[in-house]
Amino acid sequence: MQVTPIAGEQGLSRVVVTAADGARFEAYLHGAHVTSWRAAGNDDERLFVSAAAKFEDGLAIRGGIPVCFPQFADQGPLPMHGLVRTVPWTLLDAGQAEDGAAHARFRIDEAPVHAAWPNAFACEVDVRAIGTRLTVALTAVNTGHAPFAFTAALHTYLRMNDVRDAVVRGLSGAHYRDKVLKHDDDVEHAATLVVDRPLDRVYRHVPDVMQVADGSRSLAVSATGTTDTVIWNPGPGASLPPDLDAGEWRNFLCVEAAVASAPMSLAPGDMWNAAQTLEALL
Fold first, then answer.
1. Beta-carbon contacts of residue 80 (< 8 Å; ≥ 6 apart)
2. Which pTM was predicted?
3. What is the pLDDT of residue 240?
């Protein structure tokens, strides 16, 4: 069963895809941006999207799973988080796979033009939901004639009932850069990270699977092809962007599969693959 795009917020095109077992996700062609995910047998929304999010050409959607490439954050001369999250992608396919999974595949064939980025690349995003799992995979290919260095992220906003009740397990022993305290090489000594302060950390070489618990709910978070995990929540009193309402810091925690502590290099013709999987445990 194939799914065709329909009008979403502000008329932007989206697909809503449901697996045979009832798992489903919503994704916009704008940015190949996943904005909703519900596991099979559970109608709980697991991704956060701000009530003030802008669904407009040239702007990023606040929440869901933005795709950051070829630059993470402000780590370079490009706009914040790179070039691909604010432009339309081509929908290649959407519907149910042979195993009943909901899936969609998006592509950018040419790098968006920017004076500070002379390199050619193509990207694909593949989204798949079945049972209690959502996987978002990002592929980038150097289609030019010279190598280039990049940073990247799947900038996932997990929905929280109240982030002050959230804990993250699996980071103990990991080294991290603390962007709030401006420390470059701290070590996580706690068995569980609690969100009791503004957090903006780049953790390096973390375990294969982390657990994020939010009161009675929990998720397992795993990634392949990336080097880091970014944990971000601005906390109370922070200067927030206009597309994030004042109290909404309570309702999300970003847990991002990333290449952020050091750039990767991609030679002409080479391909880089990364993926993040979310699994609803409760």
1. 60, 73, 74
2. 0.97
3. 83
